[in-house]
Amino acid sequence: MGRLQLSGKKNETLRDFMLRHLKEENKTVAIGSCIYFNDFALRIDSMRGDYITRIEIIKSLY
What is the pTM of this model? Predict the structure, then answer.
């Protein structure tokens, strides 16, 4: 499991965090959508309808 520091709102799930950032960046919520940070990215890996079921953590190696 990757160790990441995310600054989310109180009681915000990773799914909610992802949705909020995608909407702020005017990106489509779909499989393959990514949000980028300094040393990692979060990518929607699986969805069931409009519901995100799995998020992939892509961590930089350098």
Answer: 0.81
